[in-house]
């Protein structure tokens, strides 16, 4: 259990620095190029962890599931993470980090709709509070944040939540690390295929003519230099590879509720780091929105943590009374 909390701490730190690190090199790379290469590197990094997990379970990837993993990669990586990278490019890193931390609430909503999982009153309260928090941060009556950045972030959150829910059933069969590894690799390969097509003159011309220049002539190897190589390695191997490996290891060693604490601490830590590193302003409406999101997160997480703690307490007492 103690090792599990170490993995939670590692994931929290890595995920909280994600938007900041991506913001630092956003100007050096095409958004599609950066998404494609970091998830390809992250997927390759996760291969030995995935193989080890499947060996322990005594399972192998079935040929019939390859189509499912391709769809999962398309949704969670090619679509969701492209929106995410566009959001990072277009708005403050702290705003993206805070809004993306609402992901668990949307996961609950999709799980109830698609998997028919029971949704409790505390879950509804969490969704409402986090929705209000988002509105407060956006501040629609005095908008100071790029509207496109907000839209990209929310589209990323929604599609990533759907990706998580659809992948849940396969996680029970193959393990979370294996499902993540396969979706990373398929998503990166799909982006690679699109990047190749973007160099076809007719396609590149049509995209550019419709204001979609970032999707035309997507580069493969440009942008790398001695100044950004540290950030590149940190994002590709640290955040994308080790971050997700730590996240799923934490889930295996603790519980889903305990691991959800990552998204409780992330908006606070990411905002503080963005303030000191990127010198991003933290207006009062953003502070109020963060507080509402934290209250909503705690309303969702705390009952599960208390239930787990009480359950362990009862087991411990039963063991003491039956030596």
Automatic annotation (TrEMBL):
Domain EamA, chain residue ranges per copy: 3-138, 148-298
Transmembrane segments: 5-22, 34-54, 66-87, 93-115, 124-141, 147-166, 178-209, 229-249, 261-279, 285-306
SUPFAM superfamilies: Multidrug resistance efflux transporter EmrE
Protein name as annotated: EamA family transporter
Organism: Christensenella tenuis
A Pfam cross-reference name: EamA
Compartments (UniProt record): Membrane
Main localisation: membrane
Family per similarity comment: Belongs to the EamA transporter family.
Claim: Cell wall biogenesis/degradation is one of the keywords in the record: no
Keyword Transmembrane helix (UniProt): yes
UniProt membrane topology term: Multi-pass membrane protein
Keyword vocabulary terms for this entry: Membrane, Transmembrane, Transmembrane helix
InterPro entries assigned: AA-Vitamin_Transporters (IPR050638), EamA_dom (IPR000620), EmrE-like (IPR037185)
């Amino acid at each position: 259990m103690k090792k599990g909390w170490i993995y939670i701490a590692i994931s929290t730190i890595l995920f909280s620095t994600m938007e900041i690190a991506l913001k630092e090199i956003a100007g050096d790379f095409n958004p599609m190029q950066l998404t494609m290469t970091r998830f390809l590197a992250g997927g390759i990094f996760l291969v030995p962890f995935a193989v080890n997990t499947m060996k322990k379970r005594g399972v192998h990837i079935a040929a019939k599931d390859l189509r499912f993993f391709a769809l999962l990669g398309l949704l969670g990586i090619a679509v969701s993470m492209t929106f995410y990278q566009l959001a990072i490019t277009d708005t403050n890193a702290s705003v993206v980090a805070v809004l993306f931390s609402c992901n668990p609430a949307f996961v609950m909503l999709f799980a109830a709709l698609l998997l028919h999982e029971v949704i409790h009153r505390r879950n509804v309260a969490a969704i409402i509070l986090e929705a209000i928090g988002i509105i407060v941060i956006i501040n629609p009556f005095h908008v100071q944040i790029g509207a496109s950045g907000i839209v990209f972030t929310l589209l990323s959150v929604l599609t990533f939540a759907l990706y998580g829910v659809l992948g849940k059933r396969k996680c029970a069969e193959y393990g979370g690390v294996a499902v993540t590894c396969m979706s990373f690799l398929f998503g990166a390969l799909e982006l690679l295929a699109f990047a190749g097509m973007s160099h076809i003159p007719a396609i590149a011309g049509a995209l550019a003519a419709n204001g979609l220049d970032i999707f035309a002539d997507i580069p493969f190897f440009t942008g790398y230099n001695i100044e950004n190589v540290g950030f590149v390695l940190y994002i590709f191997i640290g955040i994308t590879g080790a971050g997700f490996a730590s996240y799923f290891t934490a889930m295996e060693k603790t519980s889903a509720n305990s691991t959800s604490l990552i998204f409780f601490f992330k908006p606070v830590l990411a905002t503080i780091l963005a303030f000191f590193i990127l010198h991003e302003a933290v207006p009062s409406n953003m502070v109020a929105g963060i507080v509402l999101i934290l209250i909503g997160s705690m309303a969702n997480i705390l009952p599960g943590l208390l239930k787990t703690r009480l359950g362990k307490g009862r087991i411990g007492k039963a063991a003491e009374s039956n030596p």
